[in-house]
Prior knowledge:
345 residues; mainly alpha
Amino acid sequence: MLKPFSDYVANKRFESLDGLRAISIIAVIWHHTAPAGVHAILAGLGAQGVQLFFAISGFLITSLLLRERERNGKIDLRAFYLRRSLRIFPLYYGTLLLYIGLVFLLERHTAVGQAFFQNLIYFATYTSNLFVALDGRVIFYFAWSLAAEEQFYLVWPPLLLIAGSAGRASVILAIVIIACIASQLLGQHSLDVIQLPIVLGALLAIGLNNETVFTSLYRILGQTWSAPLIFIALLLSLISNALPGFVSSILFAAVVGACVIQTQHPLAPILSFKPLAYLGAISYGMYMLHMLCKNFVSKLFKTFQIGDPGIAVFLLTMLITTILASISYRYYESWFLRLKTRFER
Length: 345
């Protein structure tokens, strides 16, 4: 077994991923709080942070499942879903209940408030990405990305189990990827519900778990220049907005691959920088709470009649979101996270 591959399979925690998560959540908050004077392209870049989340999720979930099967000879779907539920549901439904209370108190007589309660069934069932359209202001709309992830968690692990082998699982993913790319090239939207980065992340995990494929990918993703060069290429593709969307999706997965295929890459000192890594660790809470914080900050500036606060909205939203997410992680989420160990083998 080649040393790079043995190091990879022995690595139980990919530290750079916390840094990538932090970049993702900072980008999302920037997208929702960017000053009015910022160029639309720079403000819109933040929306792509969710796509990086997807690539990370597809890679991590698939890697965990593959390693579980190699270690135990099987995948325990029941334990997997219990672990996912303990990680995702408490904060999600806790935040949803908070929104229900706030919308009832503050906006139940407004059109957007009434629309929120009409959409509540979709938010509660993780189907908002299918049934809730972004038409003006939509309260709790950000839940669409969590719905897309939950649907992936629901479908992909059983398919991986049924496929039986990594080769057959790769074929399934390849078919989905080709179909999504073809749909984009033809200008169709029938497959938009499938988030291509999460599928590419899953395929990346399968490839890196095979020594032969790993060796081939290492020649591209494992070089000294790989991580920074791919990251720059990704930024350029997003800024130019001239390439098809699937190109950026591939680059998102490639960035993840370059950051996990070896630990000593040039971006590692930045991505493992403790403050940044900490933001990555609490990024789920930040995502769930950031719109509440943003709206609070906006009302605060309006109350004090500050007409153009500029970047202050972003900075103050980041600060308050980080504080609240830290409290949530330490005193609420961690209790459920400790229960996950009961379902680990």
